[in-house]
Amino acid sequence: MSSIEIPAPIAPTKTPRSPRVWKFWGTLLWGFVIFAALFLGQAVVVGVLVWQHGSFDMATLKTLLAGGLTLSLSVVAGLPAVLAAIWLATRAARMGFAEYLALRRPPWKLLLIGVAALAVVVEGWDLMAQATGRDVTPGFMGEVLKSARADNTLWLLVLAFCVAAPITEEFFVRGFLYRGWSESFLRPVGAILLSSLVWTLMHLQYDWFFLGEVFSIGVLLGVLRYYGNSIWLTVILHGLNNLAATVQTMWLTSS
C-alpha cells in the first residue's frame, strides 16, 4: 500500500504594518521625549563647563548660563540630540524621517512671500515697541552678544542662533509636532496655534511683549508650513529672522 504524503502546513505570512503618523497623544508623548533629549544635550554642555571651572555654586552657574559661549555650545549640542529623538519617533511610526518632517525644497515664490510677510510682522512689533517706549530687542540678547564679543566667540553665537537653533526648533515644532497634530482632531488650524504656543514657551527668557512677537511669528511660520508643505521653508525664514535680530542687536549695542 502506497503511503500518503501529508503536505506540510503553510506558515502564515505576516503582513507588514503600514506607516502611520502619530496623532495628538502620540505626538504629545513623543514631544516630551524630544524636549527631554534637547534639555539633556544642553545640560551636558553646562555640566562640562561647570566641571572645567573647578567649582560649583549658584553664582558660578548663573554666570555660565548668561555667557555667550555656554549658550552657543548648548544650542549646538541640542541639535543632534533632537535629531536623534525625532529619528526614533519616526522610525517607531515606520515612516521615513524626511517624509515625516516634509524635508522638501521650498517653493521660491512662497519663500519670497514669507520674507516679505516676516518683515511686516517684525517691523510692526518694532513700531509698537518704539511707541510704548520699549527696547526693540530683548535685553537678554544684548547681554549675550556682549559676552560673546568678550570671549571672541561671536562667530559661534551667530552659527548657533542662525543655523543650529532654527533647524532644532523647526524640525521639532513645525516638523514633528505640527505633522502629528495637524492630522488629529486639531486639524491644521489647531496644530498651527498649539505648535506656536509650544514654540513660545521655549523662549521664556523673554518678557511678555517679546513672547507675543514670538507667538505671532510662530503663527506666520505655521501658515507657511501648511501652504508650502516644506519644513526647509520655515527653517530658512527662521534663520533669516534670527540673523536680522542678531545684526540689529549688534548694531544697537555697539552704538
Short key terms for the protein model shown above:
76% helix; mainly alpha; 255 residues; globular; single chain
Question: Care to describe what's here?
Answer:
- This protein has 255 residues and is mainly α.
- The protein has one domain (24-254).
- The protein has helices spanning 24-53, 58-65, 68-92, 97-101, 108-131, 139-150, 154-182, 187-201, 208-228, 231-254.
- The protein is globular, with a radius of gyration of 23 Å.
Helices and strands in order:
Elements: H1 24-53, H2 58-65, H3 68-92, H4 97-101, H5 108-131, H6 139-150, H7 154-182, H8 187-201, H9 208-228, H10 231-254
Helix pairs in contact: 1-2, 1-3, 1-7, 3-7, 5-9, 5-10, 6-10, 7-8, 7-10, 8-9, 9-10
In short:
The chain has helices at residues 24-53, 58-65, 68-92, 97-101, 108-131, 139-150, 154-182, 187-201, 208-228, 231-254. The protein has 255 residues and is mainly alpha-helical.
Any low-confidence stretches, pLDDT <50, length ≥5? none
Structural class based on helices, strands and sheet pairing:
mainly alpha
Overall, the morphology is globular
Please tell me the total number of domains. 1
User: Roughly what percent helix?
Assistant: over 70%
Measured by DSSP, the beta-strand proportion falls in: under 5%
